[in-house]
């Protein structure tokens, strides 16, 4: 059994967190190249960490060895989100997942359709009337924020504008605490942003608890009946669901979709996506493959083990890096190219090799809901508009944190459009 390529260096001095977070894609690509391996080690957050950048490694980590590697989020995340399934492991996590998933699957999903249609139409209906090009990441984040508040708390941005604004501001404050938490020193050295975030958390939990006590219908009435171990757990999960994280992730994918299909040279792609649901699914898969919202997820080895034949000592962290896994040339030909056709060709039926929504038995419990939201929003765009970058030349350099998106919010001119058949 051989050592994992690369080095985890010495404590503190050997830490590569700054380098990684500054440009994760360059960090991974340069190490994949220098180590000659898509699995390598480096010191991250001052811990020896294995970077998993191959499909085979990701599958082994998240599926075959799911019982050997526990989820391992940072202490600051646990503090900010409290007791949720994300920070639980083993049987308890599986029981929680089963209960929660009933809210986001099959027939339960139909109950959100009207709300999703209404919020998408409200936010997307007048795009061609705007005299200025539209900053699309901001547009989609507003849409997704309205959606999560409507779905999870029954708070409509128009009917309850003041409350919606208050919750959105608190979620932003809550979120800023997460990103202001020091990444490479102990959380006990809290920043003021972090304590403000904890204050925001308490206020949000109070609002959520009041909604839980009311007689409202919808998801809020169903989550009350989930048999959680503690009676505070329903509120904590709702806090996670309405946090800024989910709107950002949805806005990231909607932005990448809009960019990939922008321009007069993409008319035939947009037309085909509008007319053919399979092709639209392949376009969305390709957006998720190239531009997954999140960098990935972290695990910790509970015991000495192996990954792709390399020795992994107990206590080592492992990070699956979604954008790197998705560009594994062993599985995806021309991995950096946007080719929806690959999903009906060489990669047909291989959706489960992606990890935009995680993979295996700890994958995202909101996958079906996400798909419903994404498909409703992009169908609205395809049915009503043609779109182009305006100005035509803009910097589209992506950043990856907290979610993937161009550093500068892209500006798009939408034109009213119906495809002639
Ligand atoms: C575009 C939107 C979303 C993206 C990209 C996304 C992505 C992910 C990813 C990558 C994971 C796995 C993390 C890991 O393995 O460490 C995950 C887990 C999770 N997601 Fe999502 N998610 C999204 C939306 C949602 C929504 C709408 C919900 C709420 C219903 C949700 C609830 C969860 C939960 C509870 C987990 C943890 C599951 C567990 O620990 O077993 N996510 N998500």
Offer a quick outline of the entry.
The chain has 421 residues and is of the alpha+beta class. It is built from 17 helices and twelve strands. The chain has one domain (17-416): Cytochrome P450 (Cytochrome p450, Orthogonal Bundle), CATH 1.10.630.10.
List the keywords.
421 residues, globular, single chain, 17 helices, binds protoporphyrin IX containing FE, Cytochrome p450, 12 strands
Tally the structural domains: 1
Low-confidence stretches: 183-189
The CATH architecture name reads Orthogonal Bundle
Principal-axes geometry comes out as: globular
Class per helix and strand makeup: alpha+beta
What's the story with the biggest beta sheet?
5 strands, mixed
Q: For this structure, what is the CATH class?
A: Mainly Alpha
Bound molecules: protoporphyrin IX containing FE
Q: How much strand content do the residues show?
A: 5-15%
| Estimated radius of gyration | 22 Å
**Beta strands, count:** 12
**Widest beta sheet: strand line-up:** 1-2-8-5-3
Q: What fold name stands as the CATH topology?
A: Cytochrome p450
Order of helices and strands: HHEEHEHHHHEHHHHHHHHEEEEHHEEEE
The CATH superfamily appears as: Cytochrome P450
Task: Describe the oligomeric state of these chains in a short phrase.
Answer: single chain
Average pLDDT across residues? Answer: 93
Distinct helical segment count: 17
